[in-house]
Here is the input.
Amino acid sequence: MRNPMFVYDEKLTDLIFDYCRWRLSLDPVPLDYGGAVDESLAARLDGLINAAGTDPVAVMELFDKTLATAAVSVDSPRFLAFIPAAPTKAALLFDMVVACSSLQGTSWIEAAGPVAAENQALGVLTDLAGLPEGAGGCFVAGGSAGNLSGLMVGRDTARHRMGDDAPERPVVAISEEAHSSVGKALHVLGIEPLLVPCDDHRLTGWALRDALATHPRGDDVIAVVATGGTTNAGIIDDLDGVADVAEERKLWFHVDGAYGCAALFAPSVRDRFRGIERVDSFVVDPHKWLFAPFDCAALLYREPRLAKAVHSQDASYLEVLHRDTPEEWNPSDYAYHLTRRARGMPLWFSLAVNGTDAYRDAIETVLATTQATADLIESLPHLELVRRPELSVVLFRRSGWGKADYEAWSDHLLEEQAGFVMHTTWEGEAVGRLALLHPDTSIELIAELLASTA
Ligand SMILES: *Cc1c(COP(=O)(O)O)cnc(C)c1O
Here is the structure.
């Protein structure tokens, strides 16, 4: 007798596919409530997992009515907090193909087809960045995993290059605005950060040079991290100036573009990323502004062989992975992971069927709506723009408001299902923040939200 869990079940399949079809067709998707639910979820789940199993219709009913509504829809055009998401329909559908086919992308010997497709998608990104032929990498779970894996290569490459001159306790220069995941990565790697003070929240070559010259540990710096669009305010560092210093001092140059480097697709702002073509490694999250489903981040190296020297895993059962044929590419060689789903495939499929112009247009639409939002804020007497947005994050003040008022506004908007927004801190002050990412977030929608601040 076969184990029933592995037998094709038409009714179960219809149940799930019908749900997926319905969810995909929602336009707009409801915002829903996240943690703002007033019942105990644990109590509702109690007893669901038991020895005999529960009827799938009842489980889906509970998922649909109780669990799904306790997650704010990050793909709603009304989701303007943190960093939203807006996966394309093509990418979502292909994610189901990846799941139903158990597609993995660990090594060439197991999965040359999916790996070749993922590499084609990565190639679009290295071309946009202007990296030379031969650049490449892999898809990892998120920007955090990308920063950690990239900086690990920076650390070990410096150690190898410097030999006996390598500092015993290496230091990496980062700006005060670097993402928290960078600090965490350095902590894991046993590297001390050198915090470069920044004028106007932007790391420049000049500030970096000055910090290296004056800081007592300046000579132990082996790498520098610049940000290609800060998460809090969308500020792009002076990548070209930082690259000059990195070149002079032989520092590993890593750019964290998890959020912002998607805008490499947008001709209207492409110039602000000048210098990105000089990186040793960089990260961009397609699960943010490149419209891919979670979890998908691209980690790219100028010289992938340096990453391979650091990340290849040594285990007797893995030796067979390396045959060194010309086409062979093992994603497991380019980050700290081993087994991985072929998480770049949904992006690959969406790029292939939609074309890159559609990506350019979607990103330009968001950039234009952001500028319109800034204009609208400037036109309203009770609101003040904190600074002109460079990408798609808008910071603003409501005169007379403190933290509690912004919080009350957020709660009110979620209660009304009008929007999901969160305030942030800017130079010690609580301010309003809108993060745009969904091309369907219209200026009319934003005007409606801002009207409720009056
Ligand atoms: C989101 C973000 C990260 C972290 O990426 P995850 O995908 O959440 O791990 C790192 N850096 C920047 C600039 C980000 O915006």
In short: The domain at 356-451 is CATH 3.90.1150.10 (Aspartate Aminotransferase, domain 1). Residues 356-379 form the longest helix (24 residues). The radius of gyration is 23 Å. The CA atoms of residues 12 and 56 lie 7 Å apart.
